[in-house]
Every structure is written in C-alpha cells, then in structure tokens.
Amino acid sequence: MTTTAELMARRQRLLGPNVSTFYNDPVHIVKGEGVWLWDADGNKYLDCYNNVPHVGHCNPRVVDAICRQASTLNTHTRYLHEGILTYVERLTATMHQSLSTAIMTCTGSEANDIALRMAEAVTGRRGIIATDATYHGNTALVSQLSRSNRPEGGFGLDQYFRHVEAPDSYRIIDDDGSLFAADVEAQIERLIASPYGFAALVVCPFFLNEGFPTQCDGWLQKTAEVVRKAGGLLICDEVQSGFGRIGSHFWAYEKQGVIPDIVVLGKPMANGHPVGATVTTSDTMAAFRNSFRYFNTFGGNPVSCAAALAVLDELQERELMAHAKKVGDYALQRLTRLQQQYEFIGDVRGSGLVFGAEMVLDRDTQTPAGEFTDRVINAMRSKGIIHSKLGRYKNTLKIRPPMPFSMENADLLFDTLDDVLQNTPLKSNG
Predict the structure, then answer these.
(1) Residue 145 included in any domain
(2) Do 50 and 67 have their domain in common?
(3) Is residue 347 located within the same domain as residue 311?
(4) Tens digit of pLDDT for each residue in 35-46?
(5) Where are the strands (E) in 60-166, listed by range?
(6) Same domain for 201 and 92?
(7) β-bridge partners, 258
(8) CA 277, CA 399: separation in Å to the nearest integer?
(9) DSSP state at residue 167
C-alpha cells in the first residue's frame, strides 16, 4: 500500500509545492456514504466538515440522476435543453420573487466573478467592499476580496477594493448592526472620492468565514440601506450558508431581513458535481448581458442540472431544513454544557448545521487560543471525527456537516470532543 509520505511526495511532484492538506497526519480518503468517510486503511470517520456533499456523500438520488442523464445526453447550453430551465425555475422559486433569473457556472468563484461584473454593468462603477476576514473565491478578480488570499500585485485589481472590519459578536458590541453599517458607509465615501466610485458590497449573510458571529434577525438591514442610498448593489454570497443549512431559513439573507440584488451560489448545489450560479433580477441580468459577452461551456450542462435538481428534491422531500434546525438546536445545548465545563471555551454560537466554539487562553482577556485549537482538531481526527477551524484568529471550531447529520451523530461528536478537551493541555509542552 502507498504510504502517506509517498503520496505527499507524489502530490508535490505532480501538483507543485504548497498544496495544502488538512491535519498534521493527512487523511487518505477512499470512500464516502451519508455522513461517513473511510480512509485507505479502512478507518471510519464522522464527517463534521464537508458541505459539498450537502445531502450526504454518494446520495443515491443524486448518483442515480447523474448516471441517468450522463447515459442520455450531456452538452453545453447553446443547444436547447429543458433541464437548465426546470432547475432555474425550481431554484428561483425558493427566493424572493424579484430574484427570477440566473447564470449557471461551475464554481462559486466564477459566480462571484460574474456578480462583480453585474455590479459594474448596472452602476457603471467598479469599487467593491468586503469584510477583512472573508473568502469569496480564487479568480484573479475575486481573490482580491480576501485579504488572506490576495496575491502580490494582483494585476493591479486591488485598487478597486476596500475592506471593513468583520463583525465579531464576542468582542465587538454591535447589537443592531449600526457599527458595521457606519464602517461600510465610511468605505463607500472613500470609493466615491476615488476614480472608481462605489458599485457593490459583497458579504456572506451569515458571515461564516468570519466565525459566524451571533446576530439578531434583521442585523444587516441598516447596512443594506446605506448601500442602496449610495446607489450600490448588495451581493449575498450564499455558497456556505444557503440551501437550508442555517435551519431557520432556506437562505441566510432571509434571516438578515434583506433582499439582495444578487445571490451567489456554489459548493453544495449538486452534492459534489461542480455547479455554481449567480441569481439576480431581470433588470440586472439584462444590464449584464448587454454589457458583457459571457458563455460557460460546462455551466448548466444537463448532467449538472440533473444533479442539482436531485439535491433540491432531497432537501424538500426529506424536510432537511427542519431537520437541520432540530439537530442544530441540540448541538448548541451540548456545546453550552461543554462551555460550562471548560474555561477555554470562550463563546458558543451557530444556527442549524453550522455551529462551533471559540477557544481562548483566558476568558477575561479573550486571547485567541489558535495553537490549542489546532491540537484539538488533530486529536479529533485521530479519534475519527473530521472538522476544521475558521474566523479572524483561526480559533473557532468549524463544524458544518452534511445535512442528514443526526442527533446520534451529534452525541458521538460531542462525547469525543469532551474526551479530547479533557486530555489536551491548553498550552503545549513543545
């Protein structure tokens, strides 16, 4: 059997240096089913991380839809095909009635790239605002939204972007979003005074990469008003937060009490088949189509649309959004009990099937415990639990399992986490 060291050396030779892997001892995954993964040695892992297999690894309905369509026809959208039309109708039916038209892509990065060009087409301006602790994709343009992933130079595209401090409910008191709105307004004024003007604000409406801070319903409304008053567009990136994951709403923008001009979708749309989309109003779509020539060979192909439609069927017929709320509420109860036991759990938060705990060295100073968080994650991996971390300080446990994740799965997760926390010192001896 090929060893981990041999696989890593082969990766570097064929894929190049600095291709990241999870964990100190990377996992060689060979099989998935439901919420479970297996490695090459036959070890079984509970998947508490992957939102790509949104309705479960190797979901039978999705697999069957892909196989049936692939055995019939797969081509691009310059031929007429009903699959893409049926899917866009079903997808937009889950959103506000103004969001009635879509462009299908292969990735969320492509979808965000289109969203930025839509904003330029509508406003005639290029200035974009995002938070300083986010991620929205990896095209040359979209990568500039993410400070942690920005390349040196960036073809000069960084001149069009401004950043605001990411919300942080643990450290920054901003109960109604007024502070965040004021920060956005200040950056809008900077852009208006620049040669680029203000075109759009781009946010994940659940601020998931920022550490999913706790926010009241409607928290983003003041910010949306500031954006609209300045003639800009509100772009909501629902790649991670959408499709019922937060439990209370199908889309996180609904919880925020706003109606975006553009919604960006990706990862979980087709359960691992490469599908993304940019959803918008008919007027915005017309402005984009009249300003830019855009065609995507694989975006919206019949097989991708069949997979995406099967995901919607699973979500709706199995009532997985309600399931996410039920299990998520229970998960927060378990996390809160752990917080009462361990002083280094500074904060607990989440909604539906995205939840986690922020690790700190001291609750009074709120000093992030990033190195400790790494050791916890690696210890969990050694005990068969897969999850990760995120947030500005990379000290918040990121638990975001497939939607069929059950109460029993949650008990296994938190029983294991309790054991790991008992046996992992806060400060490393090394």
Answers:
(1) yes
(2) no
(3) no
(4) 999 999 999 999
(5) 101-105, 128-131, 161-164
(6) yes
(7) none
(8) 25
(9) P
- Collapsed DSSP state (helix, strand, coil) of residue 200: strand
**Sign of the Cα pseudo-torsion (95, 100, 104, 108, in order):** negative
E strand segments, 77-176: 101-105, 128-131, 161-164
Amino acid at 136: H
For residue range 341-386, list pLDDT tens digits in order.
999 999 999 999 999 999 999 999 999 999 999 999 999 999 999 9
Q: Is residue 22 part of a domain?
A: yes
Q: Are residues 219 and 362 in the same domain?
A: no
Residue closest to 49 by CA, chosen among 23, 12, 17: 23
Is 288 in the same domain as 224?
yes
Rounded Cα–Cα distance for residues 171 and 367 (Å): 10
Nearest to 376 by CA among 344, 334, 352, 408: 344
Taking the whole predicted model, whether its pTM rises above 0.90 is answered as yes
β-pairing verdict for 128-131 and 233-237 = unpaired
Report the domain count for the chain.
Answer: 2
Residues spanned by the domain of 342: 4-55+319-423
**Three-state secondary structure readout of 397-414:** EEECCCCCCCHHHHHHHH
Q: Which amino acid is at 318?
A: R
Cα torsion 13, 15, 18, 24: sign: negative
Q: How far apart are CA 76 and CA 69, in angstroms?
A: 13
Which of 317, 350, 383 is at the close of a domain?
Answer: 317
Name the CA dihedral angle for 90, 98, 134, 389, rounded to a multiple of 10 degrees: -40
356 and 293 belong to one structural domain: no
Q: Are 101 and 33 part of one and the same domain? A: no
